[in-house]
Amino acid sequence: MPADTNREEKEKVWFRETRHVENIQGASLEALKHKDDWRRICERMKTVSVALVLCLNIGTDPPDVQKPQPCARKEAWVDPAEPSVAHAQQRPAQRIAQSLQKIYEKLHPRARYKSAIDPTVDCVRKLCMSMRRNAKNERVLFHFNGHGVPKPSEAGEIWLFNHDITQYIPLSLYELQSWMGTPSVYLWDCNSAGTIINMFMRFAEDHSIRWMEEYREMRDRDQLQQQHQSVSAGTSVADSAAVAAGIAAAFGANANALHNNNDTASSTSTNSHSTIPSYKNCIHLGACSSGEQLPFHNADLPADLFTCCLTSPIQTSLLCHMLKTGTKNRFPPSIIDEIPGVLSDRRTLLGELNWIFTAITDAIAWCRLPRSTFQKLFRQDLLIASLFRAFLLSERIMRENGCHVVSTPQLPPVHDHPLWEYWDYTLDMCLTNLYNLLQPKQGHIQFTRSDCFVATPTLKHHLLIDLSLSAHANEYAYSWFFVEQLQAFEVWLKFGVDKCEPPQQLPVVLQVLLSVVSKWEFL
């Protein structure tokens, strides 16, 4: 009898936790249908070509823009007004194009890059068709900087130059679509970028309608031709109809190129399948909405603030944070260009910041975006994923400067997500560490019995005890961000009330698995 009593007491001790007494709620049938969606690997795609079209016309402002003095001047972190000793023979626009290409190469070194500085329409046509021809079925990125030309017209035109750069020449987005083909991604860093995206979608519909009309005309013409040939050869009308249907099906593979000229047809037909051209599925990133102007008024910011957000999010975050907190004067002017470390090395300052930024933006996107959109933008293409992580940051920074970024597919607002507070805290700690590293170290503190002195040659050395600085005094203090997120995830595992909803730290925890040191602690 005593043995039974002890067994009952042990059972009560070991089975009192909530998971043993709470009601078990099974998953709904609707949820079970999608339980294996995460296992499906989305279709991979690569951005293999990048066209950098820079309409700067340095020294001449477009007629519809009145820039204050002083104003933002830097493009791709290059000040065109400052002479370069290393590149004395290059024009400022060439230095800007070269700097922008190097920044892109850090994001995606294997892509093929070509620049067009203050180009003509014919120059852009040749560039786009060449990029599409080499990319075949892969993605092409079209980067447009329109700081030196008027804003896009309501008729769906962007502005380029003539050969002498004395006139603005319009380029219809309808023609640009034909030259670029699909799949493509467009980055619009210009005034009223939302106008471009709106008209691009309207022209995409026009392309689809024209494709269907030309397809029907060619199909009917081929059917009549085959019927005449079959009658003259003595075959039946039924057989000729079958032959015509087969030819029409084969024709569908390349029918979308009929409305282009011969060169354009050869470039677009290589990437087209037996479907209508999917120009509506192109990805767009715009610096501002329709009717808005870029923030040129702040001379401390780069003129291409949107491009800097997308291509250099760490440096742009630090610069904007210093301006917001009023600490820019505590650092040398070149601090943004001299952040120590390498992006790919997490043991360095720059690499750690990039790792934390990736984790935070992935978590924000995972919380706010639909799953299909998240998979398409953040898991399909490495370059597109990097750009859209930074695009989330650009929404926050551009909003602070009076602009509202736009995109296709359209994303929900993320500027107010609580995880941005962690990013601000990380920037605070980074700037504090940088400030401490840059400060000159004073003389070693030394003690003589009860008194404290600064080391001087006048004191007798045998009376002093030298307390030298630690060997680690000049090293960077690593962030505790991932450790704190692991602790928050552990708290959720133990005390989380709503276990049906995953915690916001989950994507951050998955980033920890990429670190060999933190992986064992997590597992």
Helices and strands in order:
Blueprint: H1 2-14, H2 18-21, H3 29-33, E1 47-54, H4 92-107, E2 112-117, H5 121-135, E3 139-145, E4 157-161, E5 168-172, H6 173-180, E6 184-189, H7 193-233, H8 237-251, H9 262-268, E7 283-286, H10 305-311, H11 313-325, H12 349-368, H13 371-378, H14 382-400, E8 406-408, H15 419-438, E9 445-448, E10 451-454, E11 465-466, H16 481-495, H17 506-512, H18 516-522
Parallel strand pairs: 1-2, 1-3, 3-6, 6-7
Antiparallel strand pairs: 4-5, 7-8, 9-10, 9-11
Helix pairs in contact: 5-9, 7-8, 10-11, 10-14, 11-15, 12-14, 12-15, 12-17, 16-17
Q: Total number of β-strand segments?
A: 11
- Count of DSSP H/I helices: 18
Count of discrete domains: 3
The helix/strand order is HHHEHEHEEEHEHHHEHHHHHEHEEEHHH
Strand content: 5-15%
| Widest beta sheet: strand line-up | 2-1-3-6-7-8
Shape: flat
Poorly predicted runs of 5 or more residues? 240-244, 247-274, 443-473
User: By helix and strand content, what is the structural category?
Assistant: alpha/beta
Helix content: 40-55%
Q: How would you sum up the major sheet?
A: 6 strands, mixed
Radius of gyration: 31 Å
Mean model confidence by pLDDT: 79
Give the N-terminus to C-terminus distance in angstroms.
Answer: 44 Å
Structure report:
- With 523 residues, the protein is of the alpha/beta class.
- The protein folds into 3 domains: 45-215 and 262-300, no CATH class; 312-439, no CATH class; 444-522, no CATH class.
- The protein is built from 18 helices and 11 strands.
- A 6-stranded mixed beta sheet has the order 2-1-3-6-7-8, with helices on both faces. Strands 10-9-11 form a 3-stranded antiparallel beta sheet, with no helix packed on it. Strands 4-5 form a two-stranded antiparallel ribbon.
- α7 (193-233) packs antiparallel against α8 and α16 crosses α17.
- It is flat and about 90 Å long.
- The two termini are 44 Å apart.
- This is Raptor N-terminal CASPase-like domain-containing protein.
- InterPro entries: Raptor, Raptor_N.
- Keywords: Repeat, WD repeat.
- Residues 44-201 form the Raptor N-terminal CASPase-like domain.
